[in-house]
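Reproducibility note. Readers wishing to regenerate the assembly model reported in the main text can use the exact inputs given here. Chain order matters: entities are listed in the order in which they were concatenated for prediction.
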Amino acid sequence: MTTIGDRADRVPKQDRSRATRQRLLEAAVACLAEHGWTGSTVTVVAERAGVSRGAAQHHFPTREDLFTAAVEYVAEERSTALRALFPQGAADDRRAVISALVDLYTGPLFRAALHLWVAASNEEQLRPQVTELEARVGRETHRIAVELLGADESRPGVRETVQGLLDMARGLGLANLLTDDTGRRARVVAQWARILEGTLG
Amino acid sequence: MTTIGDRADRVPKQDRSRATRQRLLEAAVACLAEHGWTGSTVTVVAERAGVSRGAAQHHFPTREDLFTAAVEYVAEERSTALRALFPQGAADDRRAVISALVDLYTGPLFRAALHLWVAASNEEQLRPQVTELEARVGRETHRIAVELLGADESRPGVRETVQGLLDMARGLGLANLLTDDTGRRARVVAQWARILEGTLG
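Running the prediction on these inputs yields the following structure tokens for the assembly.
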């Protein structure tokens, strides 16, 4: 029989477990962004998170589990943050929306995701999870983009217009990998925002 | 004194040396595309090219020299092939030009270049060469794109339009890394060709 006392004991334990999990996920993304797939092991991540190797393996039995969960967790956090930027949904300022969408593809999360994708292209045990993750994150990003741009996908070509915009954002992220591309990126975003204004109506 | 006999001896030797160099460069790109940076050593490439390790090191003293030279060599070959597709320069069929530009970012060369970029983002001894190489290849691709699209860069926004198109092409290449994205890519290219037709005039 469960008493109130038992429950009170259990809740903080669940909280601690959730906090440990979150610390591991954040450490995994930081590790992947800084050291790449080869330099990112469960041991290195556990150390960075201040968690024992055993506790890390309790949460994530394999290295693949840890890193796909990490990229997914941070992608979800970013989606939530992006929606929070435009609480009214479709925004009047399309350039601001496009700029915020492009920002999803710069910084440590994109860098971590890129390392994971590239590693998955050569490592069979990583490939299925990462392919599935990429598809899921891609669909979610597309949904947010359509909503914030106020794009009417029932009109011919609108779906492909938004897809191409997100492909451009991904390419801009790649262009930022080795050098700081901020200035050029701002000019490209300004021009493509003008083009989209004319296209999406 | 150089006699005609000496010269005749020397030319085939130079030819052999050039052929060896080319075999090494092609093997390096194939290796990088298939196994990634970690799995691509000078020994593996030399074996694949059917060249001794010593001969490989005579041509390319370091692993970094071999791989940056390899990506540059193939990028040049691709630029030449792209110009040859449209021997008249600016083409009437902009969709065909855009489609050919996007094709530069799919296939083994892009995959090899991507592995090299991602490795360079974590490896200090690779970073300067790759950064410089990426800038050079990027400028050359931009030049070809402007020429084949018949884009007038003196008009405001045209430069950024072409840059954004090449960023989109790079992003489409990345989307093709884990899954065959051919169908979606063709629809995005068709739609953006329509949009650019209106924008470039």
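We highlight two features of this model. The domain at 64-200 of chain A is CATH 1.10.357 (Tetracycline Repressor; domain 2). The two ends of chain A are 63 Å apart (CA to CA).
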